[in-house]
Write a structure and sequence with these properties.
Elements lengths: L2 H9 L1 E7 L3 E10 L2 E11 L16 H13 L9 E6 L4 E9 L3 H12 L10 E8 L8 H8 L7 E10 H13 L3 E7 H9 L7 E6 L4 E7 L2 E8 L3 H12 L3 H10 L7 H29 L5 E5 L8 H9 L2 E4 L13 H7 L4 H14 L1
Helix pairs in contact: 2-5, 6-12, 7-8, 7-9
Bound molecules: adenosine-5'-triphosphate and magnesium ion (MG).
Magnesium ion binds next to loops.
């Protein structure tokens, strides 16, 4: 490799593309002096491309999604300059399960896992793309069954837990089509959980709860040592807050959205806070149920909760969440993994949670370009 090509490689920028149910987010970064530098970022609401307003989820045909994505990349303030990207796949389009297998060689597992996975995947195995990884042994305690077996003297066959992820072929085809129509070069498709994790987790070895409050739903992941132990979707999201405000106060959805973003749950408006709490109480009681069941199953506490997604930008949310969950809770700031000019630090902190997935994707693409 010549010095010149080495140099130009250094200059390569990469893009993370997060196509959410209500908005597309892009983040462009590049490597400079060994550091990931933020070059540009932006988001575009999808509602207006369908029959919805800003902040509401919408289902669009892929040509509309591609059109919106191209428009976003070409927006003057955004001006994306690279096609090299990574793209997220919604958690809801994937099937994840942890299955228990005998601890055999990787070669044998490669044969056995797809067979065993059939039991957990409700569609024919030929219709999905299957990916799986072994959850390291140090991480799994003996199950109750194993303990029982040991007590009664049954020979103990070592077991491993395997995280199996399946994505429907139709989903992959849809994203490939969007990529083609937008003239992008997608190095990979990644389920959004893994992107968020890369963007916000530190080296902590204790279990952490990540809550991604999107428009249509709130996704919960409990992660330990970089491994997803539990995942769950709560069918309430940030758009439900807007709709409840709209109905309760008899104002339009647009006005409710503006009010939500401007005042939020800061407590400045007590009536508004009560309305917002109707939705938050539901979300956090579900979250508590999941936390409890994890803590019971694994017999260890969750150390903290990190909030991401546009819903996490709600003013006053973190203290309410902390109060409900009874663990340290804060909004994730993925931009802190990137270097950026000091004067935009505050803006980045406020909008950060929304860009967790896009930042995580860009970071992975950057590492794959090295
Ligand atoms: N400042 C704010 N205060 C409160 N809510 C906000 C704020 N900014 C954005 N939101 C809400 O966040 C939601 C969008 O979040 P996000 O972009 O993470 O969703 P998405 O990725 O499109 O959805 P999903 O992940 O469910 O597919 C919208 O419903 C919007 O109303
Ligand atoms: Mg999202």
């Amino acid at each position: 490799m010549s010095f010149l090509s080495l140099f130009s490689k250094e200059e390569n920028s990469v893009l993370g593309v997060d196509i959410g149910s209500s908005a597309i987010k892009v983040v462009q970064i590049r490597k400079k002096n060994g550091q990931a530098v933020l070059e540009t970022y932006g988001e575009l609401a999808l509602g207006p491309y369908g029959n919805a307003t800003i902040g509401q989820a919408t289902v669009l045909p892929q040509e509309k999604v591609a059109e919106a994505l191209v428009n976003l990349m070409n927006e003057k303030e955004v001006s994306v300059t690279t096609a090299m990207c990574g793209i997220s796949i919604p958690f809801g389009s994937s099937l994840m399960s942890v299955i228990e297998m005998p601890a055999v060689s990787p070669k044998q597992l490669a044969v056995m896992v797809p067979i065993e996975a059939r039991k957990y995947i409700p569609v024919p195995i030929t219709e999905v793309m299957l990916d799986w990884s072994v959850i390291p042994k140090s991480d799994t305690r003996p199950s109750l069954e194993e303990e029982e077996a040991r007590k009664v003297g049954v020979p103990n066959i070592p077991k491993v837990d395997i995280l199996v992820v399946a994505i429907h072929n139709e989903t992959i085809a849809r994203y490939k089509d969007i990529v083609e129509r937008s003239h992008l070069d997608a190095g990979f498709f990644e389920i959004e959980i893994f992107s968020s994790m890369r963007a916000i987790l530190d080296e902590s070895i204790k279990p952490v709860l990540i809550m991604d409050m999107g428009a249509a739903s709130t996704k919960l992941y409990i992660v330990e040592r970089g491994i997803v132990k539990t995942s769950h979707t709560i069918n309430r999201g940030a758009q439900d807050i807007t709709q409840t405000i709209s109905k309760s106060l008899g104002i339009s959805v647009q006005d409710a959205e503006v009010m939500k973003r401007r005042v939020g749950a800061s407590g400045e408006d007590k009536t508004l806070l009560e309305i917002i709490n109707l939705i938050l109480e539901y979300i956090f009681s579900e979250a508590n149920r999941i936390i409890l069941s994890f803590e019971k199953k694994y017999n260890k506490p969750i150390s903290k909760a990190i909030l991401v997604g546009g819903g996490a930008a709600l003013k006053g949310l973190a203290p309410i969440a902390q109060n409900s969950l009874k663990i340290e809770t804060f909004a994730g700031n993925p931009f802190s993994k990137l270097s950026a000019p000091a004067f935009i630090e505050e803006v980045l902190r406020d909008t950060g949670p929304e860009f967790a997935v896009a930042v995580g994707l860009a970071l992975r693409r950057l590492s794959e370009e090295e």
